[in-house]
Amino acid sequence: MRRKNYSGKRSPPAGERVETYVECNFSQPAAITDPDTGKKCGVPIFPGSRSTPREFIQCNLNNCDVPRDSVVSDCNTSVTTKEVDEETIMVRGTPVRRITKRRDVAHGRYVHDENTNERTYEEFPQK
After folding, report:
1. How big is the CA angle at 14 (ends 9 and 19), to the nearest 5 degrees?
2. How far apart are CA 44 and CA 22, in angstroms?
3. DSSP state of 27
4. Other C-beta atoms lying within 10 Å of the C-beta of residue 91
5. Are 12 and 21 in contact (CB under 8 A)?
6. What is the pTM of this model?
7. Residue 73 forms beta bridges with which residues?
8. How many Å apart are CA 97 and CA 57, to the nearest integer?
9. What is the pLDDT of residues 36-87, one digit of tens each?
10. How many Å apart are CA 5 and CA 3, to the nearest integer?
11. 48: phi then psi, degrees, rounded to nearest 5
């Protein structure tokens, strides 16, 4: 399958049996928290067939956890969340303006070793 947008969906439509995805977008709106470690991680995509490996080439896999033994080549595998900071500007004790700042926070990424076909999660240091 080439250049399809599955953003926000955990799997392509039923009946679509594809093993290789090229330049497709699977990005998820938010990372999830691993209940065992408390760390941010990707959303499992293809939840009904996690044992079926697939090949992803130049795909957007932001906030995704692909099926085990899948081949991931030249893809965005980052895990990010959005943070919102609000600040109220005060003048002589009176609020005059509220400023909202939004930013993406990168928590880590999935790294695929093509020699061993193993995938590991590389966590980024947080400020």
Report:
1. 85
2. 19
3. -
4. 8
5. no
6. 0.75
7. 57
8. 46
9. 888 888 999 887 776 788 899 999 999 999 888 888 999 999 999 888 888 8
10. 7
11. -80, -15
Rounded to 5 degrees, what are φ and ψ at 18?
-120, 140
- Which structure tokens are listed for 116? 């061993």
Helix (H/G/I), strand (E/B), else coil: 42: coil
Residue identified by tokens 């399809």 is: 4
Q: What is the dihedral of CA 53, 54, 57, 60, to 10 degrees?
A: -90
Query: What CA–CA distance (Å, rounded) separates 3 from 15?
Result: 18
List the strands of the sheet with 55-57, edge to edge: 20-22, 55-57, 71-73
Two tokens, residue 118:
């193993």
> From CA 70, how far away is CA 20, in angstroms rounded?
10
User: What pLDDT is stored for residue 14 in this prediction?
Assistant: 63
Q: What single DSSP character describes residue 25?
A: B
Burial string for 29-48 (b: 16+ CB within 10 Å, else e) reads eebeeeeeeeebbbbebbee
